[in-house]
Specification:
- With 110 residues, chain A is mainly β.
- Chain A contains no helices and 11 strands.
- Chain B has 115 residues and is mainly beta.
- Classes of the chains: A mainly beta (110), B mainly beta (115).
- At the A-B interface, strand 4, strand 5 and strand 9 of A face strand 4, strand 5, strand 9 and strand 10 of B.
């Protein structure tokens, strides 16, 4: 059964720092991996989706990488801002469903 | 933009009540999902549907049922609410996208409190 973990569980950084969030999954037979952002009390917003055949995807200050063979993905956030404060979740798709990680709670301090 | 809406942002119900949570999407997606999200447990799939009148159990279907009478609407039903069903409920809709790249879109969530 696919399991997804995320490290760290929480992270606090000063504004302007570059940071990396990590996602690991146990079964490398995935179709794609998606990173989401969740603000407190709200739903999830899709940030980036990486197909299993791709190595990375970029959107603005965000860059996500995927290493299927090692079961890892990273989300790199450049020049962090207080508005980036949220919980970041990764999810892997293998068939009908997505399996979600528990999330990393990010606080960017002004 | 894809829009997924949920009928209520907050609900307070009593133990034993029947509860309906409604989800509507406006992009003609075939696949729709209901999750619950709890601290420390993350998102867990309750039920999903890949077509009208079709439904499949997810990881934690006990105590829940669903209804998909129209393509755009997917309802989650708590037949007899219990306190352990207090949670954040999230609905999602899936777009097959281009070349089979599937993206999930989420609603804003319903925070349910069962007293």
């Amino acid at each position: 059964k696919q399991e997804v973990t995320q490290i760290p569980a929480a992270l606090s950084v000063p504004e302007g720092e570059n940071l990396v969030l990590n996602c690991s999954f146990t079964d490398s037979a995935i179709y794609n991996l998606q990173w989401f952002r969740q603000d407190p009390g709200k739903g999830l917003t899709s940030l980036l989706l990486i197909q299993s055949s791709q190595r990375e995807q970029t959107s603005g200050r965000l860059n996500a990488s995927l290493d299927k063979s090692s079961g890892r993905s990273t989300l790199y956030i450049a020049a962090s801002q207080p508005g980036d404060s949220a919980t970041y979740l990764c999810a892997v798709s293998a068939g009908q469903n997505f399996v979600f990680g528990p999330g990393t709670r990010l606080s960017v301090l002004p | 933009d894809v829009k997924v809406t949920q009928s209520s942002r907050y609900l307070v119900k009593r133990t034993g009540e029947k509860v309906f949570l409604e989800c509507v999407q406006d992009m003609d997606h075939e696949n729709m999902f209901w999750y619950r999200q709890d601290p420390g447990l993350g998102l867990r799939l309750i039920y999903f549907s890949y077509d009208v009148k079709m439904k499949e159990k997810g990881d934690i279907p006990e105590g829940y049922s669903v209804s998909r009478e129209k393509k755009e609407r997917f309802s989650l039903i708590l037949e007899s609410a219990s306190t352990n069903q207090t949670s954040m409920y999230l609905c999602a809709s899936r777009d097959p996208g281009l070349a089979g790249v599937e993206t999930q879109y989420f609603g804003p969530g319903t925070r349910l409190l069962v007293l």
